[in-house]
Design goal:
The chain is α/β, with parallel strands linked by helices and about 525 residues long. The protein is about 35% helix and about 20% strand. The chain is built from 15 helices and 17 strands. The strands form three sheets. It has a nine-stranded mixed beta sheet, sandwiched between helices. Strands 3-2-1-4-5-6 form a six-stranded parallel beta sheet, sandwiched between helices. Strands 9-10 form a two-stranded antiparallel sheet. Helix 1 links the parallel strand 1 and strand 2. It starts with about 25 loop residues before the first strand and ends in a 9-residue tail after the last helix. Bound molecules: 6-O-phosphono-beta-D-glucopyranose. The site of 6-O-phosphono-beta-D-glucopyranose has 5 residues, from helix 9. 6-O-phosphono-beta-D-glucopyranose binds next to helix 9.
């Protein structure tokens, strides 16, 4: 008897739709903030890795906008060093020598019209040299204080709305400091570019496992019928980091965990879990559904639904680490939260009564980002003589550092007695695909070059997310510092799982956080 079987046809991934195979049209990437940290650690390496994977357009230029004293030669050296240090692929001399002459510098002040005129002239000169026009992508990896002026400057130089060759604007976080400033920024950008030209970056959407959440939900038949209040008890979204704030006090002390991670990354994850299935993976349809989910979030009561904490000195991985207020450049009386947790309800037919618990913090025991879908316990327990009821099922999508998903099910332990234990059905990217996931920025840059905005946040989504956190931010800012409990973030020693009130937030509902 033959055991050979016909190969099983693997259905196409409905989300990625052969994106890797599509080659973007000729493009010039104009990098504002080209000598900054993000460019060195993520953006320049992503350009190189795309090149190494054959995913850059055949005709590609990189134009670095710098404010300092760099010229073409010194910037190329800087770019090479950044690529050498941070790209996934080893630097290949043959590839580098193809890329290097395509890198040029324009220098000037983001606020001055001359910069944008020089930029337009440089872009035209590049097209002339190449004998054909290229689309232009402006990537703003600069201080948010310059976002609006830069958009205006580009538009005034004929590089905004209606530009020919076509242009796109990519904007890094933070997108606004609160709802009012986000609206103002959206208005300034909308005055200069069409929304279809605007690509707001939330790098979490570029992560493989985050996209896999959509494939898991909408590419499998078994989850969607259960993906609602009937089967799901609650959802936990965790973005935990063991690192402190490093040398980012200047930014972080004005931001805090709620703005830095919850308003963007964690709420984006929530929107992907909570959204209705889109009719197709079209950028507008996907973002319509995400925005609807965010708009369905019930207004938070800051005193009841939000918790904030701040790390004090402690121990992590055997090392003693300072408290937040002792970090370089942090004021000794800082009230900035390094931990935030929210209890969120999505008021719609699907999710009524299912709490979503969100938490994020620095100096927690480990780095992990995960989405845990906790299912309801069995309605009736038919096994007699059991010490404890079977543990409820749990689906955990692990975004990082372990990329994968596990489904916890109850299993009978071997033996004559009926004893149960939760076991894990495990999917890990590393073992299933035996290939490294691309960096989030590679995926996002490639999509932006292709003009696919599915994984970028739209103006209404960003504003809906600010609407959720704004009342909490205002309440925290308004509380007099001397007022006990509400006036200050609650201390938690570095290396612990966060402040006690975060545990109380769930204990009140008879639940507990997944251990870190
Ligand atoms: C950034 C935040 O957006 O995300 C950082 O500003 C945070 O504070 C980082 O550390 C986390 O990103 P990742 O990809 O390392 O999880």
């Amino acid at each position: 008897m033959s055991t050979a079987q016909a190969p099983v046809a693997v259905p196409a991934n409905p989300f990625a739709q052969d994106v890797d195979e599509r080659l973007p049209p000729p493009s010039t990437l104009v990098l504002f903030g080209a000598t900054g940290d993000l460019a060195a650690r993520k953006l320049l390496p992503a350009v190189y890795d795309l090149l190494a994977d054959g995913r850059l357009p055949e005709r590609f230029r990189l134009l670095a906008v710098v404010r300092g004293t760099y010229d073409d030669a010194s910037f190329r050296t800087h770019a090479r060093e950044a690529i050498d240090a941070h790209a996934r692929r080893d630097l290949d001399e043959r590839l580098w020598s193809a890329l290097e002459p395509r890198i040029d510098v324009v220098s000037g002040d983001y606020g001055s019209p001359e910069l944008f005129e020089a930029l337009a002239a440089r872009l035209d000169a590049g097209d002339r040299e190449d004998g054909a026009p290229s689309q232009r992508l402006f990537y703003l990896a600069i201080s948010p204080a310059f976002f609006a002026d830069t958009a205006r400057g580009l538009c005034a130089a004929g590089l905004g709305r209606g530009a020919d060759p076509p242009t796109r604007l990519l904007i890094e976080k933070p997108f606004g400091h609160d709802l009012a400033s986000a609206r103002e920024l959206n208005a300034a950008i909308e005055a200069a570019f069409d929304e279809q030209q605007v690509f707001r970056i939330d790098h979490y959407l570029g992560k493989e496992t985050v996209q896999n959440l959509l494939v898991l939900r909408f590419g499998n038949g078994i989850f969607e019928p259960l993906w609602n209040r009937t089967a799901i008890d609650h959802v936990q979204i965790t973005v935990a980091e063991d690192l402190g704030i490093g040398r980012r006090a200047g930014y972080y002390d004005r931001a805090g965990a709620l703005r830095d991670v919850i308003q963007n990354h964690a709420l984006q994850l929530l929107s992907l879990v909570a959204m209705e299935p889109p009719a197709s993976f079209d950028a507008q349809l996907v973002r319509d559904e995400k925005a609807k989910a965010l708009r369905a979030v019930r207004a938070l009561d800051p005193a009841r639904d939000a918790v904030r904490g701040q790390y004090t000195a402690g121990w992590l991985a055997g090392e003693q680490v300072p408290g937040y207020r002792e970090e370089e450049d942090v004021p000794a009386d800082s009230r900035t939260e390094t931990y935030a947790a929210l209890r969120v309800e999505v008021d719609n037919w699907r999710w009524a009564g299912v709490p979503f618990y969100l938490r994020s913090g620095k100096r927690l025991p480990l780095r992990t980002t995960e989405i845990a879908i906790a299912f309801k316990p069995v309605p009736h327990q038919p096994f007699r003589d059991l010490d404890a009821p079977p543990p409820p099922n749990e689906l955990v999508i692990s975004v990082q550092p372990n990329e994968g998903a596990t489904l916890q099910v109850a299993a009978k332990m071997p033996g004559t007695a009926l004893r149960m234990r939760p076991v894990q059905m495990d999917f890990q990217y590393g073992t299933s695909f035996l290939r490294e996931s691309p960096e989030a920025y590679e995926r996002l840059l490639h999509d932006a070059l292709l003009g696919d905005a599915t994984l970028f946040t739209r103006a209404d989504e960003v504003e809906a997310a600010w609407e959720i956190v704004d009342p909490v931010l205002s309440a925290w800012a308004a509380a007099p510092p001397a007022e006990p409990v509400v006036g200050q973030p609650e201390p938690y020693p570095a290396g612990t799982s966060g402040p006690a009130s975060a545990d109380a937030l769930l204990a009140r509902d008879g639940r507990a956080w997944r251990p870190l």
